[in-house]
């Protein structure tokens, strides 16, 4: 059973999300929160697997709450009406495991929760296109300049250090490329002819070697490094 905390300041929206998730046989909403402070407290109290986190909330926003939960063992799936702005980049840097837009269908929401609970990051397609477009155009002299390992541009892009990338094995680079294309562990295992547990192990090692906090960050790194098709 996937145990979820729903954090959303609008009661009607929160109730709808809870209703959708509770209707799934393998998902249980264990707590609700109306702001970031309540979300962090609820996550720590319940030891939930995942927090479905709104971005704009009173007292403490979703980004600050995500940052507090980083490394706690609880994943954060950001739910927002904004397809790309400082909130998305802020959540990415804070270690969010995924990003969804509030116009997602009910089936898409429950499946996203399952995907993130399996340790596979998720970004809504519209957000993915905008992220890739932004990163592709970030080499215009902003920040420290394009192509420099470890450079942090004004857009928030972060390239892994060159030394870290060099530590990746050829197979790990293949796996990273698959992650950058948005493939799940099951899909990349099928493509590379390996088992799903092996794929998961490769992803974990890649995150450790590149000092990345989430699969989403790994997907962006693959794009920045030019590993994707």
SSE inventory with pairings:
Blueprint (H helix, E strand, L loop, with lengths): L1 E6 L3 H12 L4 E7 L2 H11 L3 E5 L7 H8 L5 E6 L5 H9 L3 E4 L4 H12 L4 E2 L1 H12 L25 H5 L3 H11 L4 H8 L3 H15 L4 H10 L5
Parallel strand pairs: 1-2, 1-3, 3-4, 4-5, 5-6
CATH architectural label of the largest domain:
3-Layer(aba) Sandwich
Mind telling me the C-alpha Rg? 17 Å
CATH class identity of the largest domain: Alpha Beta
Tally of helical runs: 11
N- and C-termini, Cα separation: 36 Å
List the domain count as a whole number. Answer: 2
Residue stretches low in confidence (pLDDT < 50, at least 5 long) are 139-157
| Strand order, largest beta sheet | 2-1-3-4-5-6
Modified residues (4-aspartylphosphate): 54
Organism: Streptomonospora alba
Domain Response regulatory: 3-117
Keywords: DNA-binding, Phosphoprotein, Transcription, Transcription regulation
What does this structure look like?
Keywords: DNA-binding, Phosphoprotein, Transcription, Transcription regulation. This is LuxR family transcriptional regulator. The structure is a single chain. With 229 residues, the protein is an alpha/beta fold. It contains 11 helices and 6 strands. Strands 2-1-3-4-5-6 form a 6-stranded parallel sheet, with helices on both faces. Helix 2 (36-46) packs parallel to helix 3, helix 3 packs parallel to helix 4 (86-94) and helix 8 (170-180) crosses helix 10 (196-210). The longest helix has 15 residues, at 196-210.
